[in-house]
């Protein structure tokens, strides 16, 4: 899966938690919490949305890797290449 599709997956997951983010630019290296002021419950719902969209089981120990767009791409790219869906 190419990065454009992965970014779209991450964006859909973010927008499912915070619809007001539709069309807002995402700074790749800045944390979602700092950019969008999402709280821990929003972040958990974001992880759930990523799971629903990709079919990947995301262990809690991996959550810190998913706090930025860059982190999400680095995490999702190899896992989806080896069997997830999106």
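-> sequence recovered:
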């Amino acid at each position: 899966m190419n990065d454009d599709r992965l970014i779209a997956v991450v964006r859909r997951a973010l927008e499912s938690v915070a619809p007001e983010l539709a069309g807002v630019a995402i700074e790749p290296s800045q944390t979602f919490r700092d950019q969008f002021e999402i709280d821990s419950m929003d972040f958990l719902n974001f992880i759930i949305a990523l799971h629903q969209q990709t079919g990947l089981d995301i262990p809690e120990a991996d959550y810190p890797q998913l706090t930025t767009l860059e982190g999400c791409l680095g995490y999702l790219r190899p896992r989806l290449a080896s069997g997830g869906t999106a």
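The mean pLDDT is 93.
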